[in-house]
Amino acid sequence: MSPARQLAPFAALSATYFAHVGFFNPYLPLWLKEMGLSLVTISLLVSVQSATRLFAPYGWGWLSDRTGERIRLLRYSATAALVASAGLWMPWGVSWLFIVLLLMFTHTSAMMP
Known about the structure:
By secondary structure, the protein is an all-alpha fold. It is built from five helices and no strands. Helix 1 packs antiparallel against helix 2, helix 2 (39-52) packs parallel to helix 5 (94-108) and helix 4 (70-85) packs antiparallel against helix 5.
Protein backbone atom coordinates (compact mmCIF):
# COMPACT_ATOMS: atom_id res chain seq x y z
CA MET A 1 0.00 0.00 0.00
CA SER A 2 1.35 3.44 -0.92
CA PRO A 3 2.27 5.90 1.83
CA ALA A 4 -0.33 8.41 0.63
CA ARG A 5 -3.02 5.74 0.83
CA GLN A 6 -1.95 4.86 4.37
CA LEU A 7 -2.14 8.49 5.49
CA ALA A 8 -5.55 9.23 3.93
CA PRO A 9 -7.64 7.95 6.90
CA PHE A 10 -5.49 9.85 9.39
CA ALA A 11 -5.71 12.97 7.24
CA ALA A 12 -9.50 12.67 7.16
CA LEU A 13 -9.60 12.24 10.95
CA SER A 14 -7.32 15.24 11.44
CA ALA A 15 -9.37 17.41 9.10
CA THR A 16 -12.65 16.55 10.81
CA TYR A 17 -11.14 16.99 14.28
CA PHE A 18 -9.80 20.45 13.51
CA ALA A 19 -13.04 21.38 11.75
CA HIS A 20 -14.86 20.35 14.94
CA VAL A 21 -12.55 22.51 17.04
CA GLY A 22 -12.77 25.44 14.62
CA PHE A 23 -16.54 25.43 14.36
CA PHE A 24 -17.54 24.22 17.81
CA ASN A 25 -15.33 26.19 20.20
CA PRO A 26 -16.16 29.73 19.01
CA TYR A 27 -19.88 29.12 18.64
CA LEU A 28 -20.75 26.97 21.67
CA PRO A 29 -20.95 29.95 24.07
CA LEU A 30 -23.04 31.90 21.57
CA TRP A 31 -25.41 28.97 21.09
CA LEU A 32 -25.76 28.53 24.84
CA LYS A 33 -26.46 32.26 25.21
CA GLU A 34 -29.11 31.99 22.50
CA MET A 35 -30.71 29.20 24.54
CA GLY A 36 -31.14 31.74 27.35
CA LEU A 37 -28.63 30.26 29.78
CA SER A 38 -26.93 32.44 32.38
CA LEU A 39 -23.28 33.44 32.07
CA VAL A 40 -22.33 31.23 35.02
CA THR A 41 -24.00 28.21 33.40
CA ILE A 42 -22.37 28.98 30.07
CA SER A 43 -18.95 29.26 31.68
CA LEU A 44 -19.41 25.94 33.49
CA LEU A 45 -20.51 24.14 30.32
CA VAL A 46 -17.71 25.63 28.23
CA SER A 47 -15.13 24.68 30.89
CA VAL A 48 -16.02 20.99 30.52
CA GLN A 49 -13.64 20.77 27.56
CA SER A 50 -10.70 22.02 29.61
CA ALA A 51 -11.63 19.78 32.52
CA THR A 52 -11.63 16.67 30.35
CA ARG A 53 -8.11 17.47 29.21
CA LEU A 54 -6.95 16.91 32.80
CA PHE A 55 -7.76 13.18 32.74
CA ALA A 56 -8.85 11.94 29.33
CA PRO A 57 -5.53 12.08 27.42
CA TYR A 58 -3.84 10.11 30.19
CA GLY A 59 -6.62 7.54 30.30
CA TRP A 60 -6.68 7.10 26.52
CA GLY A 61 -2.88 6.93 26.44
CA TRP A 62 -2.80 4.29 29.14
CA LEU A 63 -5.50 2.27 27.38
CA SER A 64 -3.72 2.61 24.05
CA ASP A 65 -0.40 1.48 25.49
CA ARG A 66 -2.00 -1.36 27.43
CA THR A 67 -4.03 -2.77 24.53
CA GLY A 68 -1.87 -1.76 21.56
CA GLU A 69 -5.09 -1.01 19.66
CA ARG A 70 -4.34 2.59 18.69
CA ILE A 71 -6.27 2.62 15.41
CA ARG A 72 -9.28 0.86 16.89
CA LEU A 73 -9.36 3.31 19.82
CA LEU A 74 -9.18 6.27 17.44
CA ARG A 75 -12.09 4.88 15.45
CA TYR A 76 -14.06 4.20 18.61
CA SER A 77 -13.45 7.64 20.09
CA ALA A 78 -14.38 9.41 16.85
CA THR A 79 -17.58 7.38 16.51
CA ALA A 80 -18.51 7.81 20.18
CA ALA A 81 -17.96 11.57 19.95
CA LEU A 82 -20.17 11.74 16.88
CA VAL A 83 -22.92 9.74 18.57
CA ALA A 84 -22.63 11.84 21.74
CA SER A 85 -22.87 15.05 19.73
CA ALA A 86 -26.32 13.95 18.52
CA GLY A 87 -27.43 14.51 22.11
CA LEU A 88 -26.97 18.24 21.60
CA TRP A 89 -30.22 18.20 19.61
CA MET A 90 -32.20 16.99 22.63
CA PRO A 91 -33.69 19.86 24.67
CA TRP A 92 -33.46 18.11 28.05
CA GLY A 93 -31.83 20.81 30.15
CA VAL A 94 -28.49 21.87 31.50
CA SER A 95 -27.66 18.56 33.21
CA TRP A 96 -28.19 16.77 29.91
CA LEU A 97 -25.93 19.26 28.11
CA PHE A 98 -23.26 18.74 30.76
CA ILE A 99 -23.34 14.95 30.29
CA VAL A 100 -23.31 15.22 26.49
CA LEU A 101 -20.39 17.66 26.50
CA LEU A 102 -18.51 15.54 29.03
CA LEU A 103 -18.89 12.44 26.87
CA MET A 104 -18.10 14.26 23.65
CA PHE A 105 -15.03 16.07 24.97
CA THR A 106 -13.73 12.98 26.78
CA HIS A 107 -13.71 11.15 23.48
CA THR A 108 -12.21 14.00 21.44
CA SER A 109 -9.65 15.26 23.95
CA ALA A 110 -7.04 12.64 23.19
CA MET A 111 -7.56 12.04 19.50
CA MET A 112 -4.65 14.15 18.29
CA PRO A 113 -2.01 13.40 20.96
